[in-house]
Specification:
- The protein has a 22-stranded antiparallel beta barrel.
- It is mainly β.
- The two termini are 35 Å apart.
- The radius of gyration is 27 Å and the shape is globular.
Length: 809
């Protein structure tokens, strides 16, 4: 037998392609063939660098063989000889798992090399390590990318106990959660490397403009591109972009998985993941989720959800692949906008005697609902041996609907502290977002003078429409005493009364504006690889950006910009398992790009900023990436600096681009396996920031507000023997300063550590039980706070204990 020769930088990656038989083999012949394949395959097989479709990996920890379905009727039409051969071919059956001596002499155990539902982007047998990104725009594996890329596979998400994107962000270094405040909707507001990225979230490579709440049940992996990414993703992306990769149907294997979790805080959650191969060319997949839960350490709060995601893949021949998916998610809960802030002590009131469980909302009035409906259709057409056409159409709608009660200022004027009060100022939002996007590009692969080239050239057209409204009927007249004349309800600081009667139902104002964004884009991305020693990556993108605001009353506003951005990077590989790189990239933040913003300070389009030009961002990065222990462990390090110019600030009521600031720092990452039994996933980010230019004297020289400048996470998991594994994680978030742009208010949130632990028992190959405790020491940890001088503070969940059962069949 002959083995394929791979570039030396990729030799050793344990990933191989699946092969369909051209003729039918009997059972003994299949067993002998599988044994021969295992015998000649090296411990780590080369991973293909090119192409966007997933490479089926060998399933070592295979399910028991099931009887094959009955043969199809002979009268079924056959489209081609090749298709007929595939139809007659039996499905490949994985060989039994080989056994090795267990660590510390614990006996024999199987090598858990690849679960049947493992990610197609990860490294087989190394669940914490991802080898490549999902998009065809990235021709090289992650170790060859000239930028910092943080990938969070579903196995890490599961071990973190994360059920939402906010949970994932809480334990990811370099990311900070923000608040829904002022002119912003409450949703997944995220800062990447110090820059607001709430509008820079993508799903399967397509911008998701919903600014909503995102669930984890259908996530295959989360990809975070650090540094400006406009040449890949379009407008925004000053600190980076976050791409959610959803689960797709696969045609090479069927599998089923059910997870059930119960725990403290009335936690009840169940998910199911079924992938069914209908024919060798067609597969369907369904993921479903249901949850009824409170929030650990918080009174009265509800977090109920349910959803379903459907996906199908159809490959009628070797040159065509069609995929389609649809996702529906519904959230229904009681919103929690945190705890009040002690301006005298410059710390949250929960640090000065107030119980962390105190809830300052009104259960008979407040609510939070969110609905998401999204569908997509994609085709991958192999035009020639060197040209592939990819086209994706994505259509979606989301509704974010809430009335909430943030606990703002505290009145301590009474001589009796027991009578101190908190003003609960009502906030509301009804936001309807519709969007449609088409991305079409051609990928060319060719060789010139010994250089392997990949060129991706494409266009993107999108239409986003958002209508945002508020609620009436929230004023004090609807309440019995005690109230204020401003429409706020007054809570007792120590013992808030959440059950006050609310006889009137909140009603929509129907006065909200409609915001539309039309974008037409063209991009070219080129990757040149010379002998896996020098790799050059560059790209340029033009975005024709037009935003319009149509108010119910008032003036129509419109802004048009042409945005040109680029990236360039070079990678040098002195060793086959190591790379050193340098890169530069740009991005642009046009006015009105954050469609949920209702004020200029929050990115919205208003009369005072319609004439302001785009903010410009430039980032520089030097880094290195190394793979150790038979390429099972990836270690990364990077120095970075991002500069923003023409930054908007409000001067005498007018928004002008008179500010500039920078963020610089160092980032380290470590993920994969140190030994066959020991897995790690870790990151450390150390940043400093500075306002380098401002028309407001108080901002000059100050650091940026609302971000954590230092953050750290270490997750470690160890397999004790064939049945048991234990793990845990430690997370650190530094202090966060308050302010609008710069840290000028004096408000500060304290730093904090969080520790989690879990233990899992594999009762059988198909059944496992996991016990976990999150925030073991029940620490008060804070996520962000309103940036005014009367802030409220988002508080993270307290101690949560869960027990989960997983069954695969």
């Amino acid at each position: 037998m002959s083995a394929a020769i791979a570039p030396f930088s990729l030799r050793g990656l344990p990933e191989v392609t699946g092969v369909r038989s051209k003729r039918k083999l009997d059972a003994p012949a299949r067993a002998v063939t599988a044994a021969c394949i295992l015998a000649v395959t090296p411990a780590s097989v080369a991973m293909a660098q090119q192409g966007s479709s997933a490479l089926p990996a060998v399933t070592v920890d295979a399910p028991q063989q099931r009887p094959r379905p009955a043969a199809r009727p002979a009268t079924r039409p056959v489209r081609s000889v090749a298709t007929a051969q595939r139809r007659r071919a039996p499905r490949p059956v994985a060989a039994p798992a080989p056994v090795v001596a267990s660590p510390q002499g614990a006996g024999q155990l199987p090598i858990f090399a690849q679960e049947v539902d493992a990610s197609p982007y990860g490294q087989p047998g190394v669940p914490y390590k991802v080898n490549r990104l999902a998009s065809q725009k990235f021709a090289e594996p992650i170790v060859n990318q000239p930028r910092t890329v943080v990938t969070i596979p579903k196995e890490v998400i599961q071990d973190k106990g994360a059920t939402s994107l906010r949970d994932i962000v809480r334990t990811t270094p370099g990311l900070t959660l923000g608040t829904g405040e002022g002119g912003n909707a409450f949703g997944d507001r995220i800062f990447i490397r110090g820059f607001d990225a709430r509008s820079d979230i993508f799903i399967d490579g397509v911008r998701d403009p919903t600014v909503g709440i995102r669930e984890s049940f259908n996530i295959e992996q989360v990809e975070i591109l650090k540094g400006p990414a406009s040449s890949f993703a379009g407008r925004g992306t000053a600190g980076g972009a976050l791409n959610i990769v959803t689960k797709k149907a696969v045609t090479d294997r069927s599998f089923r998985r059910v997870d059930v979790t119960v725990g403290t805080a009335n936690t009840k959650r169940a998910t199911i993941d079924i992938n069914q191969v209908i024919t060798p060319e067609w597969a369907v997949r369904i993921n479903a989720m249901g949850q009824k839960s409170g929030v650990a350490g918080r009174d009265r709060v509800r977090d109920d959800r349910y959803g379903v995601a459907l996906a199908t893949t159809f490959t009628p021949n070797d040159r065509l692949k069609i995929t389609a998916d649809y996702t529906y998610v519904k959230f229904d809960g009681l919103p929690d906008w945190g705890v009040p802030y002690n301006r005298a002590a410059l710390k949250p009131w929960t640090e000065t005697g107030v119980s962390r469980s105190n809830y300052y909302g009104l259960v008979n009035r407040d609510f939070q609902k969110a609905t998401q409906n999204v569908g997509s259709l994609a085709a991958e057409i192999r035009l020639t041996d060197f040209a592939t056409l990819n086209s994706k159409l994505r259509i979606g709608q989301s509704i974010l609907d809430y009335v909430a009660t943030p606990p703002e200022s505290v009145d301590t004027s009474n001589a009796n502290p027991a009578l101190w009060t908190v003003r609960g100022n009502p906030k509301s939002r009804y936001q309807l977002t519709n969007f449609v996007t088409n991305q079409t590009d051609v990928t060319l692969k060719y060789n010139t003078f010994g250089v392997n080239n990949t060129t991706v050239a494409g266009v993107e057209v999108s239409r986003e429409t958002t209508m945002r409204d508020t609620y009436a009927g929230l004023a004090s007249e609807a309440f019995p005493s005690p109230t204020t004349t401003t429409g706020s309800y007054t809570f007792n600081l120590w013992d808030p009364n959440n059950d006050v009667a609310f006889p009137n139902k909140p009603r929509r104002n129907y006065t909200g504006p409609t915001i539309g964004i039309d974008t037409k884009s063209a991009y070219v991305i080129h990757n040149a690889n010379w002998n896996d020693f020098i790799i050059v990556n560059a790209g340029v993108r033009y975005d024709d950006y037009n935003v319009q605001l149509r108010p119910v009353t008032g003036a129509y506003l419109e802004r048009h910009d042409g945005l040109v951005n680029y990236n360039a990077g070079v990678v040098v590989k002195p060793l086959s398992n190591a790379s050193v790189y340098a890169a530069v990239a740009t991005s642009s933040n046009p006015v009105g790009a954050d469609v949920d913003g209702g004020a200029s300070d929050y990115g919205g389009l208003v009369a005072s900023n319609v004439n302001a030009g785009p903010e410009r961002n430039t980032s520089y990065e030097l880094g290195t990436k190394w793979e150790f222990f038979d390429r099972k462990l990836l270690a990364t390090a990077a120095l970075f600096q991002t500069e923003k110019t023409n930054a908007r600030e409000t001067v005498n009521g007018t928004v002008v681009g008179s500010a500039a600031y920078r963020v610089r720092g160092v980032e380290f990452g470590l993920n994969g396996k140190i030994t066959d039994a020991w897995s790690v996933y870790s990151g450390l980010v150390l940043m400093e920031s500075k306002v380098t230019q401002s028309a407001i004297a108080a901002n000059q020289g100050k650091q940026l507000a609302n971000i954590a400048h230092q953050s750290f996470n270490l997750m470690s998991k160890y397999r004790i023997n064939r049945m048991f594994e234990i793990g845990g994680s430690a997370t650190y978030i530094s202090k966060v300063y308050g302010g609008t742009l710069a840290a000028t208010t004096g408000n500060v949130l304290p730093p904090g550590w969080r520790f989690d632990a879990f233990a899992e028992a594999h009762i059988t190959k198909d059944f496992a039980v996991k016990v976990a405790v999150y925030n073991i020491f029940d620490k008060n940890l804070y996520e962000g706070f309103y940036r005014s001088n009367t802030p409220f503070v988002y508080i993270s969940p307290g101690r949560l204990a869960t027990i989960s059962a997983t069954y695969k069949f």
